[in-house]
Amino acid sequence: MAHAQAGDPEAGESEFRKCRSCHMIQDDQGNDIVRGGRIAPNLWNIIGSPAAHQEDYRYGDGLLAVREANPDFVWTEEEMIAYVTDPTAWVREKSGDDRARSKMTFKLNANQADLAAFLAQNSPDAP
């Protein structure tokens, strides 16, 4: 797996097209960075944020279990790469529950580091 530092945010912006049917990136002022769907969480400022942190989104049991099992967890580029590669496997590993499932069924099979770099670029609070 590629390291997040190798990610190209410009290529990741193009890769995000696969995500925007469900996700958008809208800043705190309501400005659309990338117009997209509202059936999944807004990914503005996701890198550096806790799991399942948006109050206006109803997360699945899998991500809620991750948050409960790892109260100090915050999204990093590396964690995002692992998550988008196989969301359910990631949720099972992080929650410790081998029956846990992610609501996100889409798996990104290539360019994960680019996507993570793009999300980091749109995360002003990222470490």
State the main characteristics.
single chain; 127 residues; mainly alpha; Cytochrome Bc1 Complex, Chain D, domain 2; two-stranded antiparallel ribbon; 5 helices; 2 strands; 35% helix
Strand order of the largest sheet: 1-2
What is the name of the CATH architecture? Orthogonal Bundle
Most strands sheet: 2 strands, antiparallel
Total number of beta strands: 2
Low-confidence stretches: none
Q: H/E order of the elements?
A: HEEHHHH
- CATH-wise, what's the superfamily? Cytochrome c-like domain
CATH class: Mainly Alpha
The averaged pLDDT comes out at 94
Q: What oligomeric state do the depicted chains represent?
A: single chain
CATH topology: Cytochrome Bc1 Complex, Chain D, domain 2
Report how far the terminal alpha carbons are from each other: 22 Å
The global form is globular
Strand content of the residues, in percent?
under 5%
Label the structural class.
mainly alpha
Explain what you see.
There is one protein chain. By secondary structure, the chain is mostly helical. It has a single domain (4-121), classed as Cytochrome Bc1 Complex, Chain D, domain 2, CATH 1.10.760. 35% of the residues lie in helices and 4% in strands. The protein is built from five helices and two strands, in the order αββαααα. It has helices spanning 9-15, 61-69, 77-85, 87-95, 112-121, and strands at 25-26, 32-34. A two-stranded antiparallel ribbon has the order 1-2. Helix 1 (9-15) crosses helix 5 (112-121), helix 3 (77-85) packs across helix 4 (87-95) and helix 3 packs across helix 5 (112-121). The longest helix has 10 residues, at 112-121. The protein is globular, with a radius of gyration of 14 Å.
